[in-house]
Design brief:
Elements lengths: L2 H12 L11 H11 L4 H14 L3 H6 L2 H8 L6 H16 L8 H4 L7 H12 L8 H11 L8 H14 L5 H14 L18 H4 L16 E11 L8 E2 L9 E2 L2 E4 L5 H6 L1 H6 L5 E5 L7 E2 L3 E12 L19 H11 L2
The structure holds a DNA duplex (11 and 11 nucleotides).
DNA sequence: GACACGTGGGG
DNA sequence: TCCCCAAGTGT
């Protein structure tokens, strides 16, 4: 048996029952693929059910408000996925008469859909023999064939795509693609792969050369940047507060309290002298108190955010138009959501 | 080509 | 604790 046939054989016996594996509706496959980008199945599952329930069709998704879509996505991270999902749903409704595009090239035109996702949908839903190359595929191929080209180099990306394309079973590309990925996720895992029970263990380069731990090769480490956030949790005279929509960078279009970002940690004296702080308030009669919480930074993959939540009580009410009930409906980053949970329990 | 973009689980 | 990383894409 060749590589593909062995993996498909293994897959048909060992695959998990996942909800998107019982449908060939391209909308649901698309949805699942977007949710699963850089995301574990266990983490994404609940979101898949939420979206299918709230938006059973592409039209339902297209008709939704972005705020609603982001609220359902809250907590999953990489929020551009949700914005592009919504954007592309509107595009399919308006430009494709609600019909999901049915070829690799036309699927690739969707925002938020790159080579991987277009290949996955085209193969699974439309039987087009386009090979997927995701983290699992890089790992499986690099180990089995002994390829030391860095997977995140331009050459590596080309080389692995070419190899994957040569290996694909053109008769059942969808099954083949899912088999390689499932095999990578369950058998040829990053740590402690189950080589003893691996159906390919008599012909695996890395196993025979004892180089499992060296593969796949990945270059570069991104440097973590530290950022210092000061959120103003305002209580107005009438006990309203203020949330603002983020307009750039991380958490785009999600909501947060008024933010003062500094290059270093600041104390209360520095805070109340800050221009942004003073522009917010007319009254000088303010009660400013630091909300005590853990010093743990909010860790993102590329930055650590050190946050102080300042509770500010003011006699003003102008511009502080959000009720505490209203803000529950707004999409917020996990950092804000975690704070609100702690704050309310106090 | 390098970097931005989240969150949570596991060793 | 720290680091890796998980069905990537856009700029």
């Amino acid at each position: 048996m060749n590589f593909s046939k062995q993996l498909i054989y293994w897959y048909l016996i060992n695959k998990r029952d996942l909800p998107w594996r019982t449908t060939d509706n391209p909308y649901y496959i698309w949805l699942s693929e977007i949710i699963l980008q850089q995301t574990r199945v266990d983490q994404g599952m609940a979101y898949y059910f939420k979206f299918v329930e709230n938006f059973p069709t592409i039209k339902d998704l297209a008709d939704a408000q972005e705020e609603h879509v982001l609220k359902l996505w809250q907590g999953l991270g990489y929020y551009s996925r949700a914005r592009y999902l919504h954007f592309s749903a509107k595009y399919i409704v308006n430009e494709h008469n609600c019909i999901f595009p049915s070829s690799y090239n036309t699927i690739l035109k969707l925002k938020g859909v790159g080579d991987y996702t277009a290949s996955a949908i085209a193969s699974i839903c439309f039987n087009e023999p386009t090979a997927v190359v995701d983290g699992n595929v890089y790992r499986v191929l690099s180990r089995y064939f002994g390829i030391f080209t860095p997977i995140n180099s331009t050459n590596g990306i080309k080389e692995f795509k070419k190899l994957a394309q040569q290996l694909i079973d053109v008769k059942k590309p969808g099954i083949h693609n899912q088999a390689v990925m499932e095999f990578g996720a369950r058998m040829c895992k990053p740590q402690n792969p189950d080589c003893n029970n691996c159906p390919l263990n008599d012909s695996c380069f890395a196993l025979s050369k004892n180089s499992i731990k060296e593969l796949p090769v990945k270059v570069k480490k991104l440097k973590i940047k530290n950022r210092y956030f000061n959120y103003l949790v305002i209580h107005s005279k009438s006990n309203t507060t203020k949330m603002v929509k983020r307009e750039k960078g991380i958490w785009l279009n999600l909501y947060e309290f008024p933010l003062i970002e500094t290059s270093e940690p600041i104390d209360k004296n520095q805070l109340i002298k800050h221009e942004i702080f003073n522009d917010l308030f007319d009254s000088k009669e303010l009660n400013v108190k630091l909300f005590t919480r853990e010093e743990k930074p909010h860790k993102l993959s590329h930055q650590h955010i050190f946050t102080k939540f300042w509770i500010v009580k003011t006699r003003d009410s102008k511009n502080f138009n959000n009720s505490w009930d209203d803000i529950e409906k707004l999409p917020v980053p996990a950092l804000i959501d975690n704070f609100l949970t702690q704050y309310k329990s106090n």
